[in-house]
Amino acid sequence: MAWDTEGTRRRLKEAATAEFASRGPDGTTMARIAERAGINKERLYRYFGDKQALFESVLTDELAKLAAATPPPGGSFADIGEFAGQTFDYHASHPELARLLQWEGLASGTPVDQANRTAHYQDKVRAVAAAQRDGVLDDDLDPAQLVFTLIGLAAWWFSVPQIAKMLTGADAEDDYARRRACVVRAAQRLALPPGRL
Amino acid sequence: MAWDTEGTRRRLKEAATAEFASRGPDGTTMARIAERAGINKERLYRYFGDKQALFESVLTDELAKLAAATPPPGGSFADIGEFAGQTFDYHASHPELARLLQWEGLASGTPVDQANRTAHYQDKVRAVAAAQRDGVLDDDLDPAQLVFTLIGLAAWWFSVPQIAKMLTGADAEDDYARRRACVVRAAQRLALPPGRL
DNA sequence: CGCATCTCCAACGTTGGAGTTGGTAATTCG
DNA sequence: CGAATTACCAACTCCAACGTTGGAGATGCG
């Protein structure tokens, strides 16, 4: 049988992504990853180095997917609610990434790819500021703070799901549509001029 | 020298709180906690049981402190902005709490002290629902979702401080007053009837 | 074929950390 | 005082998981 080294790599990385997302860097064992992939543990070390390097490799891959999937800015902000709704959708459909980023954020140290992410956020802030000048958005709130709050509006549900469940009494899947509607509505109330509500 | 068992307990718990908040349950070692407190490791096990029990004890304490510091329901919600502002203040002076809650959210398993917390949240939801019926608060949003979102408005800044910094370009301390004002204003826009803004 | 190189793995060495134990000093009570 | 109880700790056991190794099969090349 011919070797399938790329397939082996891929299966190992998929298993690693799932395990890291589920249990975090400290809670994940290399043996479990290998077992989940059906590959011997030694392959992990040969292909990816040690555990830390494997985690960074997984995170880098997921960030690349995010960058590829993120639509470029420039859209209108008239329907600011949909912006928040799409952020909500993205988190809902990429639970592994959200959890990986949370774990990465909780670990002390500088965020990965800080420069690019800062630039990306600043783009959004500038676009919001322009929309405020045009009267499309209310200028009640500082643009940077508004962007930050809008992201939080959507991401908060995934950041502390246990609190969401205690408050609403519903699971994330059952409550998806209602939660999304709430995010959209809240974003509109925060950002739109009173007249456009 | 007389025994100071309460002092020992307290020092151990303070050390455990700091370590857990900083490194998470898996990243924290019992030996480090003991060393930080200047107390022998065995005291941890005698007083608190195993690591899991210690973590739950720490989190329960922090939640109790938060509940005690949050104004009891029944007060008027006309100044809903101040409710959010006080939540913000609390997190600002207890930065460990947000991180502990995030780690709890990432860990699989049932939340700590679920019954009490659920009851506490339901109290808040009922109070908000009543205020909505009275017209003090807008009934645009579901009361449970509104409470969840208001908590998020305040806590989000402390959940992802690195994103806050990337967006605002300022450190938490320098930006405290502006951030608090933003939280208060956002809470008002979310919860108050348009006429009362 | 003979040799080098690559893929793969079972079994191993080692370490770090959870949880325990046996013993000592302080305190209380009769 | 003396016995019982409690607070305390150094040193220990044990295990889980990281990372390695030596060797066995598969492939390629001259």
TrEMBL record, chains A, B:
Tagged with keyword Calcium: no
Residue ranges occupied by any HTH tetR-type domain in the UniProt entry: 6-66
Protein keywords: DNA-binding
Pfam families reported for this sequence: TetR_C_21, TetR_N
DNA-binding region: 29-48
The keyword DNA-binding appears for this protein: yes
InterPro entries linked to this entry: Homeodomain-like_sf (IPR009057), HTH-type_TetR-like_transc_reg (IPR050109), HTH_TetR (IPR001647), Sco4008_C (IPR041467), Tet_transcr_reg_TetR-rel_C_sf (IPR036271)
PANTHER family xrefs: HTH-TYPE TRANSCRIPTIONAL REPRESSOR SCO4008, TRANSCRIPTIONAL REPRESSOR
UniProt name for this protein: TetR family transcriptional regulator
Organism of origin: Amycolatopsis minnesotensis
Species classification: Bacteria, Bacillati, Actinomycetota, Actinomycetes, Pseudonocardiales
